[in-house]
Amino acid sequence: MDTQTQASPRVVVVGAGWAGLGAAYHLAKQGYAVTLLEAGSYPGGLVAGWQTEQGRSVEAGIHGFWYPYRNIFSLVDELGIQPFTPYTRSSQYSPHGLEVESPLFQMEPYLPSPLGTFVYTDFKRLPLSDRLSALPLLYSVVDFDNSDDAWRRYDRLSARELFRQFGVSERLYKEAFEPMLLVGLFAPGEQCSAAATLGMLYYFILAHQPDFDVRWCRGTVGEQIFRPWTQAIEQAGGQILANHRVTDVIEGEGDRLTGVVCGDEVFEADAVIFSVGITGLKKIVASSPALRRREEFRNVQNLGAIDVLATRLWFDRKIDIPLPSNACFGFHQTTGWTFFDLNALHDEYREEPGSVVEVDYYHANQLLYLDDEEVLPLVQANLAGCLPDFGEAQIVDHSVIRIPQGVTHFAPGSYQYLLPGQTSFQNVFMSGDWVVTRHGSWSQEKAYVTGLEAANRAIALCGLGQTADIIPIVPDEPHIQAARQVNRWGRSLLSQMGLPL
Questions:
Q1: Rounded to whole angstroms, how far apart are CA atoms 343 and 346?
Q2: Could you check whether 10-48+222-301+418-462 and 304-409 share the same CATH topology?
Q3: What is the maximum alpha-carbon separation in the chain?
Q4: CB-based burial of residue 63 (10 Å sphere; 0-12 exposed, 13-18 middle, 19+ buried)?
Q5: I need a labelling partner for 106 at 20 to 30 A (CA). Which of 43, 67, 340, 489 fits?
């Protein structure tokens, strides 16, 4: 039985990723008796880094930190750490060679959204006529305002249907939008929700000119960010327990949970925050009668996740890689991949005699169960298809990490099954990059923000402490605000007249 003090409200947080760490940190600072349970060996979940037997740092894929990640940047400032590189430029390759180079948008003269993205992105082969075919799509960007109504309307469509309906040319779709989906939503367009596509596209690219600028961790996220963060949680009185997989919950009276079960251990709770991914929550629900009795939790079984293959290669020589971050398309029909020059991004590899390259594949179901001996020549051939010098180099060491069902899949029709932050249990709250929020952020920033939102709900329930200050996204530019207002008036008028929308 958990023996934490009864003097403070007891909160059990399940899952030690961005969301769980965010909730636990804030609640511990407010005097709560926080127990953070992590099924894996390291806090951080799928983004935790570790070292191989040879002492080389690896992690389950590289994660960027985009310009609008205002809450995460505020967190690292509070922790007093400097984990990030400067903002970097990026490029995109196909089997035909270099396709796109992106500048540092914040360094270019500012243009109203989305003109900056359109004008300053350097397409090497895509004709202007194809790029202009995206103009009608701007109506959907205005119409999709992240409201519940907009999500329900657009979630019925796939991204492929969305782009086809708005007249996007086949070439623009194949060479720009689908590659973005494969590395942004991790699946081909016919398998992605149009609502999620518009939310991701607007947040990362279209809302404001600098939004696509990205920087990277100067080492593994686990070492650079999560280690000092977990130390701060423990210093604030929080308890972090790795290798604790939740198997059940204990239901009390009045739509409340009174405890969380990990095998033979029971952790009593005044509030519970779930901060696990879809795959993790599906496993917990499957083993818990109390959760299975609730339709909202049963419906999580309708959601899915996507396979990831993360490789890290050490070469016998330095290879000239023009830009440190690169996305690739056209090498595999339904799989997107990225590669990163870790000599340029990670401090520990700056003096390596040979190139160290991270290559990550998304929607990698057809690659996941290949042996390392089959994966390595495939990866090297793909790299050589972008930069031929990779074909002459020798791999002297490698890491291959397989992550089945590792990242969230926003499939068409999935919105109706996503859980809100407040569940039908009075004292159970949800957080994570797949949880419904009106904040408007995405990916790691969204996970962290929903963790803070869950902490604030626990504070409202228990009545102890100050709520976390959550930095909102930068407001829409005035012309976008005006266009959305006119659109809402138009939709309301058509609805009153009984005309189809």
A1: 6
A2: no
A3: 71
A4: middle
A5: 340
CA distance 380 to 397: 13
Instruction: Give residue limits of the domains in the chain.
Output: 10-48+222-301+418-462, 90-213+474-496, 304-409
Taking CA atoms, 482 is separated from 170, 477, 489, in Å, by 31, 9, 11
Per-residue pLDDT of the chain (501 residues; tens, 9 = 90+): 343 445 799 999 999 999 999 999 999 999 999 999 999 887 765 566 666 667 777 788 898 999 999 999 999 999 999 999 999 999 999 999 999 999 999 999 999 999 999 999 999 999 999 999 999 999 999 999 999 999 999 999 999 999 999 999 999 999 999 999 999 999 999 999 999 999 999 999 999 999 999 999 999 999 999 999 999 999 999 999 999 999 999 999 999 999 999 999 999 999 999 999 999 999 999 999 999 999 999 999 999 999 999 999 999 999 999 999 999 999 998 999 999 999 999 999 999 999 999 999 999 999 999 999 999 999 999 999 999 999 999 999 999 999 999 999 999 999 999 999 999 999 999 999 999 999 999 999 999 999 999 999 999 999 999 999 999 999 999 999 999 999 999 988 988 888 776
Beta bridge partners of 315: 395
In this structure, which CATH number among 3.50.50.60, 2.60.40.1240, 3.40.50.10420, 3.30.390.10 belongs to the domain 10-48+222-301+418-462?
Answer: 3.50.50.60
> Are 166 and 137 contacting, i.e. CB atoms less than 8 angstroms apart?
yes
Domain 304-409 listed as CATH 3.90.660.10: yes
What pTM was computed for the model?
0.96
Instruction: Answer yes or no: are the C-beta atoms of 192 and 410 closer than 8 Å.
Output: yes
Cα dihedral 53→57→61→67 (10° resolution) = 170
